[in-house]
């Protein structure tokens, strides 16, 4: 069974994640620590996306399947960083973190990581 999120769509979602993590914490009035933490997540994700073999890459260097492995491997960092920094104690930041975490898990699980020719 083919999963519904193609490399093309995944690339757009990742850039959206970058924009959302930079803009939303500021718009929601989160603390400076929360804004920096979520912006860091977004920039790292967007940076990886920019160099992944997918149609919207700046430079196609990272195989799409490896991109998926990196995302999966970084999930403990996403899960623990708000707890370790105290950001999870802020109600708005905690809600945002949980919502984005659910979205990340859903996107990961619905992405076709074995898609042939992701650069097309």
Structure description:
The protein has helices spanning 7-27, 32-50, 64-85, 91-110. With 120 residues, it is mainly α. The protein has one domain (7-110). Helix 1 (7-27) runs antiparallel to helix 2 (32-50), helix 2 (32-50) runs antiparallel to helix 3 and helix 3 (64-85) packs antiparallel against helix 4. The longest helix is centred in the middle third of the chain and has 22 residues, at 64-85. It is elongated. The protein starts with 6 loop residues before the first helix and ends in a 10-residue tail after the last helix.
In short:
The protein has helices at residues 7-27, 32-50, 64-85, 91-110. The chain is mostly helical and 120 residues long.
Low-confidence stretches: none
Largest sheet: none
Overall mean confidence score, pLDDT: 95
Please tell me the total number of domains: 1
What oligomerization state is this entry in? single chain
* Percent in helix: 55-70%
Using the CA coordinates, give the radius of gyration: 15 Å
How many strands in all? 0
From N to C, what is the helix and strand string?
Answer: HHHH
Helical/strand content category: mainly alpha
**Distinct helical segment count:** 4
Strand content: under 5%
What is the CA-CA span between the terminal residues?
Answer: 21 Å
Task: Offer a few descriptive terms.
120 residues; mainly alpha; 68% helix
